[in-house]
Amino acid sequence: MLKNKLLYYRLLKYIKPYWYIVILSFIFNSLYASTDAGFVYLLKPILNQGFIYRNNDYIKWLPIMLIIAFIFRALCNILASFFTSYVANALISDLRKNIFSHLLKLPKKFYDEYNSSKILSLILYNVSQVSNTGATTLTNFTQSTCLCLGLIIVMFSISWKLSLLMILITPVIIFLIKYNTKIIRYLSISTQDTFANMSQVLEDSIKGQLIVKSFALKSIFKKKLYNNANKVRIYDTNTNLLKAISVSVIQLIFGIIIAIIVYLAISHNTKLSAGAFISFITAILAIIKPLKTFITLSTNIQKGMISLESIFQVLDIPIEKEKNIKYKLNDIENIVFDKVYFKYDQKLVLQNINFQLKSKQKLAIVGYSGGGKSTLVNLLSRWYDATRGNIYINNININNFSLVDLRKNIAIVSQ
């Protein structure tokens, strides 16, 4: 399993060309979140100057200040959304191009081990999951962090003694995020695997619909699909339940903290004005939302990391390699198999194959299903390399021709 730090580092290579757009997104997301903290702080002067002291000059300028603040907030939101979306869509495009380019260079063995539905799921589902996670994380993490910091500054500016009570919940939040991360990782892996299996069932039933109907296999395929669909439903439900429990625990803790603060503010001489007290309580209530977001982010990040890991696992598979290219192949005059052996893993499929075929001669390869007929032909185009022995074209070892030259001179008629 790839480590998360390595995954982040590799992902940054794809984001690096757009670093200036990421910075702009960060700036406008920060400004957008800061305005929310600013509005909470404004409750103090609005209540004190507007409702208690009736300051006419303040009341006259207040609507204009609020309109300007809301216009500024709206512009920040638009620009933040645009820059974040730009990076996310560029990341999707680059990842898909890179994966597809890599897939074209992978050996046939890869396609023997990976079915087409898993490959499609990788390009379509997993890449989108990574991009969505990246965009959501960039937006929500930046906004939630800035909002939390802004609200904490507001609370400490009003009463640093009461604000110290908020530190009590920090260990609980850290514990919830770590606990969530472990379970969500397991659920994300299970969901991804089940989704790939469901895609395979769909592909098999659609492509082979004549066989499914001819052999009365509809009930079997229906059962397979229903089982996978139910598994995905259970995994998603458990994920949402875990998030709901974590959020509810945080809200309960905040409720206890608020109750203590209200009691201390009323029963002790805290010297808080009505506006300051309302602003302080509002800041506490407002900070619940970004903390809930952090819980949700840990879930989304784990889903994205699982998808990203599967993507890089494929990208790390070695591509087909050219060997000692010395000659160019134009026409095939003769083919020679000289003591050729081939193994699939540890299973010996071809053993001591010897024959010679000249131009315009015909050769029929006959045998039982799974006996190695297709494998023998695939060795000629170097879809696989022989385990032992040599194959010659025009009395030259096929390893001395480029793969492009070799394959463009050999026609394939698939079954």
Question: What attributes characterize this protein structure?
Answer:
415 residues, alpha+beta, four-stranded antiparallel β-sheet, 12 helices, 4 strands, 72% helix, 7% strand
Can you offer a commentary on this structure?
With 415 residues, this protein is an alpha+beta fold. 72% of the residues lie in helices and 7% in strands. It is built from 12 helices and 4 strands. Strands 2-1-3-4 form a 4-stranded antiparallel β-sheet, covered by helices on one side. α7 runs antiparallel to α9 (218-267). The longest helix has 50 residues, at 56-105. It is elongated.
Summarize the helices and strands and which ones pair or pack.
Elements: H1 4-15, H2 19-52, H3 56-105, H4 108-113, H5 116-158, H6 160-163, H7 170-207, H8 209-214, H9 218-267, H10 274-315, E1 334-344, E2 347-358, H11 373-380, E3 388-393, E4 396-397, H12 403-408
Antiparallel strand pairs: 1-2, 1-3, 3-4
